[in-house]
């Protein structure tokens, strides 16, 4: 089993920045980190993906504003969220896929409001 612990998020004004982090309990050679979000009344959507191969992608609505990265020393994936908009308000979930399977973080709240 792999545990996935999320931290960060919080409250920001429109145009502000927040960060969410995701730390797996294990380090593996092959992996894919993804960030999803789920707003109230809406389905969970994939917003960013980073693979151990170096490949990455973002959903159009966050391109140029959000950045997904991984710290090799800390074994932590981070989602940096800049130029935040009220529509970014959601619970953000980290997803990890590796040789042992697929795992989810507990979710962290991101609220963007004046």
Q: Could you characterize the architecture of this molecule?
A:
The chain has strands spanning 4-8, 10-12, 18-24, 32-38, 45-51, 56-58, 66-71, 76-81, 90-98, 101-104, 108-112. The chain has 114 residues and is mainly β. Strands 2, 4, 5, 6, 9, 10 and 11 form a 7-stranded mixed β-sheet that branches. A 4-stranded antiparallel β-sheet has the order 1-3-8-7, with no helix packed on it. The radius of gyration is 13 Å and the shape is globular. The N and C termini lie far apart (41 Å).
Which features characterize this protein?
114 residues, mainly beta, seven-stranded mixed β-sheet, four-stranded antiparallel β-sheet
Report the end-to-end length measured between terminal Cα atoms.
41 Å
Please count the beta strands (DSSP E, at least 2 residues each).
Answer: 11
Q: What fraction strand? A: over 45%
Mean pLDDT: 96
Name the shape in a single word: globular
Poorly predicted regions: none
H and E order: EEEEEEEEEEE
Major β-sheet, in short?
A: 7 strands, mixed
Radius of gyration: 13 Å
Structural class: mainly beta
Number of helices: 0
């Amino acid at each position: 089993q792999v545990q996935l612990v999320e931290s960060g998020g919080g409250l920001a004004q429109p145009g502000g920045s927040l960060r969410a982090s995701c730390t797996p309990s294990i380090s593996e050679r092959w992996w894919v980190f993804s960030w999803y979000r789920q707003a109230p009344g809406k389905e969970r959507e994939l917003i960013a993906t980073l693979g151990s191969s170096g490949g990455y992608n973002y959903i159009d609505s966050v391109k140029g504003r959000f950045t997904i990265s991984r710290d090799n020393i800390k074994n932590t994936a981070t989602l940096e969220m800049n130029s935040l908009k009220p529509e970014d308000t959601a619970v953000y979930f980290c997803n990890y896929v590796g040789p042992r399977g697929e795992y989810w973080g507990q979710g962290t709240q991101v609220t963007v409001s004046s």
